[in-house]
Amino acid sequence: MTTAETNIEYEGESLKKRLDKAMFASRRRAFLLVLPLLLFVLVTFVAPVLYFLFQGFYDPTFSRIMPQTSAQLAEWDTVSEPDEAMYAALVADLVDARKAKTIGKVATRVNREKAGTRSVFTSSARKAAKLEAPFKEALIDVKKEWADPAIWEAMKTASNTWTLGYYANALDYRQNADGSYRRQDASRRVDTEVGFGDWSFTVNLGIHQLLFLRTLQISLMVTVFCLLLGYPIAYLLATLPLRTSNLLMILVLLPFWTSILVRTTSWIAMLQSQGVVNDLLVFFGVTNDDGRFSLIYNKLGTLIAMTHILLPFMVLPLFSVMKGIPPSYVRAAKSLGATNWTAFWRVYAPQTIPGIGAGAILVFIVAIGYYITPALVGGQDGQMISNFIDFHMRKSLNWNLAAGLGGVLLVIVMFLYWLYDRIVGIDNMKMG
Amino acid sequence: MKLVTKLAPAALAVSMTLGVASAAEITVVSWGGAYTKSQVEAYHKPWAAATGNTVVSEDYNGGLSEVKAQVEAGNVKWDLVDVELSDAVRGCDEGLLETLDINEMPAGDDGTAAADDFLPGTYTDCAIGTIVWSTIYAYDSSKVEGTPSSIADFFDTEKFPGKRGIRKNPKANMEMALMADGVPADEVYSVLATAEGVERALAKMDSIKDQVVWWEAGAQPPQLLADGEVVMTTAYNGRIFNAVASEDKPFEIVWDGQVWDLDLWVMPKGAPNKEAAMDFVKFSTDTKRLAAQASWISYGPVRKSSSSLVGSFHDKPDLKMDVHMPTAPSNMKNALQNDFEFWADNQDQLNEQFNAWLAK
Known about the structure:
The complex is a heterodimer. Chain A is mainly alpha-helical. Helix content of chain A is 69%, strand content 5%. Chain A has three domains: 2-55, no CATH class; 61-159, no CATH class; 194-428, MetI-like fold (Orthogonal Bundle), CATH 1.10.3720.10. Chain A contains 21 helices and six strands. The two termini of chain A are 42 Å apart. Chain B has 15 helices and 13 strands. Chains A and B meet through helix 6, helix 7, strand 5, helix 11 and helix 20 of A and helix 3, helix 4, helix 9, strand 7 and helix 15 of B.
């Protein structure tokens, strides 16, 4: 068969070659058309994301500013007493770092491994230039903390340019000086209940683990609420006469076009304890002035506001799928004796699955990285992992840890996407 | 929020006829609300009128992240930033800030050299202080029965029921919690340096945790009080003062257990208009300007020579400012200065512990 095909000759060239040529030309044209977009995505999205993920593994602060100490630390076995050569290297580096005004960076870096060491570095560096050999005694004289092997262990951990420490930290593990890992200190862990009702049990989780779990939980709940609320709306829109449904469509799209900040702050005005909802409840006697409900600045507030904000992401794909389902199918089912419920459940609902899939994955993925709404209305138990990433970006300035947290979140999303593909199938999804 | 203080046309005409080099535009970043307004009135407008330059005023919520991002990207947009002392020290240590020499600042009106006229500790290698401000707690006297008078009353929801507003940050809260728990002000930081001390502070805060509404921006607490969301809240004293002075709100400040701190000017390394910005720093920290700011908000000037010039609120001649300053003797009976070194050392760890406690 194949030989026959390739042997067909036409004006000196095989048909396959000519076909390849034609295909190549059209493929090249297609490629050139998407090239600007591809470059745009590469430069403004893929490259920054990769660069940032890379920051979670790469931290040259200590090794670059303290080269002599780093060289000494590389040979240290973490067990024996630090010797004079190590102290001499340290003093030399401290003098240089003080001159270059980079000592603060080193101090901040080591302080992340061992709290309270920041001032040990900055104050020792101020006096380092005047120190004389033997440096070990001299340095311990300046700050007694230098005699503590723990500060050397912290420096050794910090001196690794390539490190898994930040990703470990993002999962609530700490790196030891010898490269092994330990769990985060007990004071930074919390007991939390997992599961529902009788099937719940208590686990001791680190703060990041807890927040990753909560982020997944909130995203899942928001997705379910959006589906429950969005499905009837989409059905209504798809079945009403065009003029009415267009009008109603505006009601779905209007909030979609409004700024997220405006919508979130409107929810604050609605839900706060002196807000519209509570005022109405008091007015109708559902509760009294002292018993106003806490509807916002907690997880409930996050759930309500996020469900509202993400609802159009569910309604729109559902609507477009439902619009394409011929009404004759349900009519046929009914004329064959199906009840209303059977006709809906057995005939109509299965055909909307591509819309449900698209809507659910859109809402879930947008929700998992949601930041501004939980920050404004989340209070203490409505915060998500993105608020922590923001905290480390803007407040603690620990960008490496922020990168670690972001990397873990990305891996979780990828895994869930893969899982979704295995269970539902990505092809079985229709955006519109 | 951006606000451009327009240069006075007259000043422009003068500078043009004198052939002064083209007017500069500097970006000055501060904390927004009533505080930024006091700076605009006391510093920006007079400086713009005197030099023909323009000041672009921007708001931020504190911290060094924007400065770090701008300096490390080599794209510095800000000329001056109003920061807390701990950030001034940290930024200087990390090489994010230009050095500002106290000896270049003008002498006090009484002729005292700047280095002696500024209160001790109100300038560093990279920062020049402007005001003393304080974290206090305030209550709505129309909603609270009785008169809370001590820091312990803030944590006593049985005696004074109602929601509490607290800044979502361990700083100042941990100190207040310990003082409320009976730790004398001068021992607070030594207690807080131990693991038991941290536990103790968190336990105290735990006693009111379910009653807390958390705030982040300085403009929020007066709003929370006004909305009736909380009956008491920690706040920056000037914000509460202004709500009382200009909006006649029934708020009262309790000075017991106040935690005071400084605000200072810093210049990000590589600021685009160094010379003009330096001129602005000199102008805004002279004796008269610092005293003038105190007529717009109740934050105390850091120059000794300014304190005798502090008068009354700008549009209320009978509202004397001096008794509303954090530094007034009657307000300093049980006060604590924020220890920047303690926080520089421990804030990462305490932030994590505070966050874990919050999430419980």
